[in-house]
Every structure is written in structure tokens, then in C-alpha cells.
Specification:
15% of the residues lie in helices and 37% in strands. Strand 4 and strand 5 form a beta hairpin. The chain has an eight-stranded mixed β-sheet, covered by helices on one side. It has helices at residues 4-14, 226-251, and strands at residues 26-38, 49-58, 66-68, 82-83, 88-93, 105-110, 113-118, 134-136, 139-141, 150-157, 172-173, 181-183, 190-202, 205-218. The protein is built from two helices and 14 strands. The termini are far apart.
Length: 252
């Protein structure tokens, strides 16, 4: 699945739940529903997906991780492969649908470390996709997402209409945002794949997430033409001449 790494980058940065590490090796764990789409005008024929991700981050890349749970509620074994280079173990589930009999309690084991994640008070669901993304100068805005408690923007290198490669990290990101707009400061001109993310938190845990990929073109500041430069120079000369005349009048 060529889009797998794009979502993986996001959860590597989320970090999951902070843990007290005694010997080794768990650094963070998470269970989160994930829905994403690609703007079809910018990413023709690239499909989205809806799934639940169960993951853990380890300090030691080779340290195996096991999970005590039946996440799908239907007896499906937990596929939990190691992702090389990420210190991340990740289970991806496309069935049954999000919110249908999913387990809410998970116990992760790695080396001598154990982490428990109780989400029994949380509600797994498909969070609506952020829509109506508008670029106006340096400001980006989008429609509010029902049940979303925060948002985040991440920029990736543009890949000619294809999803960013699975081994690519984002180039830049915002902090969590509570508003549905963001104004960039001194952005670098270029073509980017922008991911607009919506989050629903349950306590300290992000449990539902939706994403929309769109193309973002940041224009370079235009270079003045020769005639414009002439006007600029003339204006400066007139200003200097006016200042000189004013000072001479004061001396008189």
C-alpha cells in the first residue's frame, strides 16, 4: 500500500502515550481511527482509505512488541510487523468498519516494559474530512469538522500528483491548532503536498483522525520590472529631495 508511509510519518510524530521506561523499550503507544482522502483535482485517481491503526514506538529497533487484545472483536489475529528504521510496530485494519465492536483496552509488551491503554470511555468513529481548503495569500483556511477538537497542517515535497513516497518525512508542520485557519510566516516558495488533519481527542489520547491531501503552491515574491524599478528610484529621489528642502528651510 503506497500510502502507508504517509500516515506512518504522522503517528511517529504523535508519539502516543508517554511511558515510564524502567529497562526497555516502549516509548509510546496509540490506537486511532484514520480516514484520509486525496483531492482528485490535484491527485487524480489516488484512492483514500478508512482504517484503525494500532501502534507502538520502541527505543530499541529490534525489540519485539506484542499486544494483548482482540482489536477487531471477531477473532482476527493481530498482524503487527516491524517498520524498519522507524522503531515502530504498526497494525493496520480495514475491516470491520470503524466503530464496530472494536476493542477498547490494549496491553503492550516489549522487553521488560508493559503499557496499558484503556479507551473504554472513548468513541471510535470516522471523522469527517476537512473540506473547502482555501489559500488566500499566506493564510490557509478550511471548514470546521464536527467532533474535531484540534487541527494540524503538514507539508510534504510535491511528487507530480502522486502521494509522497513512503520514506519521505514532512518538510514542516504546525502545532495543534484550535482554529480553522493558519497564517504562514516567511514561507519558502515552491510546490508542496499539504495534508490538512483533523483530530478528536479523548482525554490526552487522539482517537479519531481525518486527513485531506491538496496541492499547495507558494508563489515567490515578484521581481520588479525595469519600469517599476524606475518608479521606485524616482520615488526615493523625490523623498530625499523633499527632506533636504525641508531641512534647509528649518536652518533658515
Amino acid at each position: 500500500m503506497k500510502k502507508f508511509g504517509l500516515i506512518l510519518v504522522a503517528f511517529f510524530c504523535l508519539g502516543g502515550v508517554n511511558l515510564e521506561v524502567t529497562a526497555a523499550s516502549l516509548d509510546g503507544v496509540f490506537v486511532i481511527s484514520d480516514v484520509y482522502e486525496y483531492d482528485q483535482g490535484d491527485f487524480p485517481d489516488v484512492p483514500g482509505s478508512s482504517r484503525i491503526l494500532i501502534g507502538s514506538k520502541t527505543y530499541v529497533p529490534t525489540e519485539p512488541v506484542t499486544v494483548d487484545s482482540n482489536p477487531t472483536g471477531d477473532g482476527t489475529p493481530l498482524p503487527y510487523p516491524m517498520i524498519p528504521g522507524w522503531n515502530m510496530w504498526l497494525g493496520v485494519f480495514l475491516s470491520p468498519t470503524i466503530g464496530s465492536d472494536w476493542a477498547t483496552t490494549y496491553i503492550f509488551h516489549s522487553g521488560l516494559s508493559t503499557a496499558s491503554l484503556d479507551l473504554s470511555s472513548c468513541n471510535f468513529r470516522e471523522l469527517n474530512i476537512p473540506r473547502n481548503v482555501i489559500f488566500s495569500g499566506d493564510t490557509i483556511s478550511w471548514d470546521p469538522v464536527p467532533n474535531a477538537t484540534s487541527y494540524k497542517l503538514r507539508w510534504f515535497q510535491w511528487n507530480n500528483g502522486a502521494p509522497p513516497p513512503t520514506n519521505s518525512s514532512f518538510l514542516s508542520e504546525t502545532d495543534y491548532l484550535t482554529q480553522t485557519s493558519y497564517t504562514m510566516t516567511n514561507p519558502t516558495p515552491g510546490e508542496y503536498a499539504l495534508r490538512v488533519e483533523a483530530f478528536e481527542f479523548c482525554g490526552d489520547n487522539p482517537v479519531n483522525k481525518s486527513n485531506l491531501y491538496v496541492m499547495h503552491i507558494i508563489e515567490a515574491e515578484p521581481i520588479p520590472t525595469l519600469s517599476e524599478w524606475g518608479m521606485i528610484v524616482s520615488t526615493c529621489l523625490l523623498s530625499m529631495a523633499s527632506l533636504i528642502i525641508y531641512r534647509r528651510k528649518e536652518e533658515v
